[in-house]
Amino acid sequence: MKPGRFDSTVLTFCFAFLYLPIIILVVYSFNASKLVTVWGGFSLQWYRSLWSNESLMDAAWVTARVGVLSATIGTVLGTLAALTLVRFPRFPGRIPFTGMIYAPLVMPEVITGLSMLLLFVALDIDRGFWTVVIAHTTFTMCYVAIIVQSRLLTFDRSLEEAALDLGCPPVKTFFKITLPLILPAIVSGWMLAFTLSLDDLVIASFTTGPGATTLPIKIYSQVRLGVTPEINAVCTILIALVTTGVIIASISAKRAELRRIHDEHVALRGTS
Amino acid sequence: MAKSLGPVKRKFSPWTDPSATPFIRFENVTKTYGDFTAVDNLTLDIYEREFFSLLGPSGCGKTTLMRMLAGFEEPTSGRILLQGQDLAGVPPYRRPTNMMFQSYALFPHMTVEKNIAFGLEQDGLQKADIKARVEEMLKLVKLEPFAKRKPAQLSGGQRQRVALARSLAKQPKVLLLDEPLGALDRKLREETQFELMDIQHTLGLTFLIVTHDQEEAMTVSDRIAVMDKGVIVQVATPAEIYEAPNCRYVADFIGDINILEGKVTAEGGAPVSPGHPPVMTLVSEGLQIAVEQECPAAVGDAVAFAVRPEKVRISLDQPADTAVNAAHGEVWDIGYLGDFSVFLVKLDDGRIIRAAQANVSRLVDRPITYGDKVWLKWPLDAGLVLTR
Predict the structure, then answer these.
(1) Which of A159, A177, A266 sits opposite B153 (nearest CB)?
(2) Rounded to two decimals, what is the model's pTM?
(3) Any idea which fold A57-234 has?
(4) Could you tell me which InterPro entries the record lists for this protein (chain A) (predicted)?
(5) Considering only alpha carbons, which residue of chain B is nearest residue A164?
């Protein structure tokens, strides 16, 4: 069926709303003029000045560290939570545990952030880098848990039983059999966690303190004073990073698919 | 077909020797899951070097029994002994049993070689020893050219052989096979059955196989345990199970059989010749049946007469003696199986008896067809009387 005129119009509008702003942002990051809405010719000056803008670079560095740390801790905890959910169908408190794993996915960020803030204040913890890491870990681990859980649900337990049967103790079985096989899910969990941490503004602004300004907070506070082409440049770099990540992910998925098809062909030839 | 194994297997029957000690012993083993009893107070002895089958429909507890031996499940009560040693509390990774899984459970991230070496590596063997053993196993299952492949690059039959090699690599005292050939097509399955028997015989190991495929069990086993609802109904050699089932369930589960309900009319009749069992008679809705058998019931008791279709002769001509073991009817349907044809004969009283005939002549020469009036006749030793 060929798309009708209505269909293509709707499609065009949707894509325009989604991507036009991004395209404009990217284009204006190369603007020679300081005015964001007036094109003054091509230039890389904003990228250069970005490099020397220490506060922005600091914020980027903080964000990267927060992202890596919280994604890593969140991935470990989330994987453990997923294992618990899948492997122990009955234990006291399973239902509240499941609920608490899923809750942060639907909880408004403002509430998560505010409650974190109240907790840190109540416990008299100085807010800064580590409180942001803790806050990001707690909400990203839920996403990891869900991704890893769905992989574990389709995991053939007889693989582990076979390893046990062949004399491999349980812990070693986990590291030699289970972990390598669920690793792709864990890696994508980590990437999602990292991305979520990277672009979180709300929770970070509630839980951060002096000296730990993340990039989203920095961008937001600068934009309130007016959009500068420098911000456009930062955002363009971010977009480039994310796009590269997505492209790499889809290429490796495509490769895995091709390998699977190749394997099937080899197997078929093997029979004849 | 049966190669050299036939006569050798015949001589092997430790279960008839009262002084033989069982290799594996299930002693009053019960396994319950909540309200469901998977295995019910089951006692069973299996001997060294035996090829033993657990046969039954799905849900009869055969897999649970095997998994308890492997250590994946603990019995709710009762004991499992291996060479006289209680296995209670011994984890699967310390049991001298290895299992071939129904799904094969090959490690997808390892090559064929690595899969086979996995168990040996756990034992901390020298690299060179592992290599030698892996090569030996690859040769045994004829997979040498595929050593470097991943499981995904193998066909179903090859995967099955890798799984077999992996479970044999550690030379387990008992090899457990969970529906090992279920995923193979018929021809490959038959070939593999003989290979399995060959391997078992060469290595001199004890094999315990779980299957719902009666042909498979009949082909490979020294003895078969027929299971139903968590209990063993009969343990016997394949021939005994087929020729002398001890109840209707076994008779019906293994192969095709005609079961005629009746009442005992006389017992202990004179044998046809010395050395034969006495003759008993029964009547089934007017059909007079005589059987060479020690009567398992009293005169007047309700019993069942069971006779295999291939032991019932079918003919267009009236037999000489139609008083006993004979019935008259009409061919109602014919099942053509190639080597055999099964005639469904509707008796004059409405019951249906199956009679099988080997198709020794070509199709055109076969005289009996749909609607023909035919006679069925069977000898005194063709069937047997069942009380259960």
Answers:
(1) A266
(2) 0.78
(3) MetI-like fold (1.10.3720)
(4) Bact_Polyamine_Transport, MetI-like, MetI-like_sf
(5) B93
E strand or H helix that includes residue B177 = strand B174-178
The answer to whether the beta carbons of residues A143 and A78 sit under 8 Å apart is: yes
Q: Where in chain B is the domain with CATH 3.40.50.300?
A: 12-252
| Min Cα separation A128/chain B (Å) | 43
Residues of B in contact with A159 (CB under 8 A): 105, 107
Closest CA to A208 of A136, A134, A133, A132: A132
Token pair belonging to A17: 């709303």
**Is B367's Cβ below 8 Å from some Cβ in A?**
no
CB–CB contact A165 B123 (8 Å):
no
Distances (CA, A) of B164 to A233, B66, B72, B181: 61, 17, 19, 11
Across A24-38, A70-84, B23-37, least confident range = A24-38
| pLDDT tens-place string over residues B147-194 | 899 998 888 888 988 998 999 998 888 999 998 887 778 888 888 888
A266 and B CB contact within 8 Å: yes
Interstrand relation of B287-292 and B302-307 (parallel, antiparallel or unpaired): unpaired
Of A162, A267, A271, the CB nearest to B105: A162
Neighboring chain A residues of B103 at a CB cutoff of 8 Å: 156, 158
- Indicate the fold that domain B12-252 takes in CATH: Rossmann fold (3.40.50)
User: Any chain A CB within 8 A of the CB of B141?
Assistant: no
CA proximity to A55, closest of A197, A218, A210: A218
User: B256-386 architecture in CATH?
Assistant: Beta Barrel (2.40)
- Asked if A89 is an interface residue toward chain B (Cβ–Cβ < 8 A), one would say no
Q: ipTM of the assembly?
A: 0.80
Structure tokens at B382: 């063709």
Residue B171, chain A, CB below 8 Å: the answer is no
